Amino acid sequence: MSISPNSNSSYQEPLVFIDTVMEVEPETEATDGNLDGPKLFKGMIFPSLEKAEELYKAFAKANGFTVRIRNTREGSRGTISSREFVCSCQGFWEEKKGKSLDQNQERRTLTRRCGCLATLIVKWDKKNKTWIAHKFDNDHNHLMVSPKSKGYLQSNKCMPVIAKNLVEKFHETGLSIGKVPKILGTMEGVNFNERDCYNHMRDKRRKDLVVGDAQAVVEYCRRKQIENPNFFYAIDCDMEDRMINFFWVEARGRLYYEKFGDVVVFDTTYRTNKYEMPLANFVGVNHHLQSTLFGCALLQDEQEESFVWLFKTWLEAMHGKAPVSILTDQDQAIGNAVKRVFPNTVHRLCLWHITSKFPTKIGICKTGSEFQKEIKKCIRESVSPEAFEKDWKSIIEKYNMETDTWLNGLYEIRHSWIPIYNQTIFFAGMNTTQRSESMHSFFDSFVNKGTTLREFVMKYEKALESRYLDEQDEQYVSKYKFPTKAKSPLELHGANVYTRKVFNLFQIELREGIHLRTYKVGIDETFTIYEVSCFRSPEKKCVVHINLDSFKGWCECHLFEFKGILCRHILGILHKRDIEEIPAHFILPRWTKEVIYDMDIPLPSKGDELSLVLRNMVFYRMVNHLSAYLNTSEETYHFIVNSIEETYSKAAAMEGPTSEKNSEEPKQQELRDHAPLQDPVISRTKGRKKDSTKVSRKGRIMSGVEVSMQKRRKCSNCKVLGHDKRTCEQHNEES
């Protein structure tokens, strides 16, 4: 039944809605000859304001224009009484107050506003308790968008859920999200562009950070810890509950530290995040000679107390196990913190960071200069501490540099950076923090200057997954493929024991050792003394002490102590004596193929106060081993699943019904009770200038050497750096 809202009849039929909209006799209907989609007219009744907006937008989409809300009025009780919808071309463009545009900006400014009068006003009818079209005008003064171009209208753009999910995945893995429209552009009903992808990530970021960046990190980390109790994090706050320092370790990082934590590279030169906080990462070397991340921290400053807090937290996360050796930059604050927290750890300074300063500190140390060649040979090729000290003093006297305070300071701390002083300590063959630097370039593909704290932690997890996949690929090659050129028994044994990349280093030493000369020069108690030299350079000799019964011994080159791989001198002796296998005491477990599968922590005995984290590590490792058999057969799969279900039922019966509830309640209660954390302030660490600091394209701070190595202008007339021919004074005088 249809009735007119303006009828004078005293009797009215009850309102009946059909298909959510009640049709009435139209007083004014759109008659522009271009009507598609739903019909609209004055007096039309809608069940809700949302339905009126939906129908008008559908009408606009079908006819080639877009709609926006111009005005909304509220009644005395704060409820909406009317709303005016207009064409997006309504009104005229006006310059914003307080913002003036220059001539070029005004010329580039575009607008669709042309004073269009098309409108729909919907009012609330108190009597009938419905919404009614109070005014409808479909008089447009502009061209309607053609059907082929309708997809460019803002209201017609459609970004499906699959596209949003793909954009988020691309963002997490560091891929360009602008490629998503090109991938899905051929799908029917898909209408979005590159800008929509970036807008979606902006909206998602705002939604994630509704509680604040720092608090969002806390909530994310607590959820991660509930999912996996081996995840560890710690936050240092000031008196105003503002985040100062933030440290976290993934479960896999703690697991790998058990076997590969003997040597750690620590670096704080990476600062790509929203707050410019230095990223302090703990990096090690795994059995495939790949860099592995143990843990990370974001610091507010680089003061000694911040590093002390970080190192103590690190010890807590790693069950009190300190590294055997640690490599860092030449930083006094880091050095003091290492002495306080790791008193028994050997601390070395990065050789590259020190030698790279020579050109800026010493004027005569230019590339290719005699001084540069002599000092490099002295630092890297000295065969003993005594030889180094003799050569160093000789060079200093030769170039009259006895009063140079910087060189004298380096000589005073020579034990912490000259390689020959640390040859007897295991450093996995490292003299520099290059592995940490390589991790920086790896992170560049995941983060940027605008990365928030929460995004940084999430992308750090993705970065670890990427590194883990690389390790799995190398593990497969090492375990199931064999070198084709391994011929001697020692070589075959090394190929079976070592991973592929470690074996390559071992093979080089072995093949060099086969061709060495060995001379027995004496016996010292239980050791036989050999002099080993090369045919090409017989003057270069190495003395080897070795027990011919147990084959225990050492070489004065100390390659095994420093790198964990037998040197060519000992291998030459073993080859001459037809030894077919590498002695067990010369095989470091950290370099073998089975080190990952041999990470066993003893199960806690009754009364043993083993930490919960350690128990979880045992459990997760056993489950990982078990998962390898899931796909062997259907029978095996059902056996494993049924056994786990039976074990779970027995454990739940032993523990009682409240154990699961109590495990998560304290964390959730702590989350509710603690005051929200405040976001950290922009970090201003030492050595950073506000304006003049040079940074790379990726946002990393450049060293003085890198800045000096940048290409400078050279005058084609006078051949002097610093200017060109146009500004050359000599050229101007001649002309």
UniProtKB/TrEMBL annotation:
Entry keyword annotation includes Zinc-finger: yes
Entries under Pfam families matching the protein: FAR1 (PF03101), MULE (PF10551), SWIM (PF04434)
Molecular function GO labels: zinc ion binding
Secreted listed as a keyword: no
Domain SWIM-type, residue spans: 542-578
Protein name: Protein FAR1-RELATED SEQUENCE 5
Keyword annotations of the record: Metal-binding, Zinc, Zinc-finger
Biased composition (Basic and acidic residues): 661-676
Span list, region Disordered: 652-700
Residue stretches of biased makeup (Basic residues): 685-700
PROSITE patterns, per the entry: ZF_SWIM
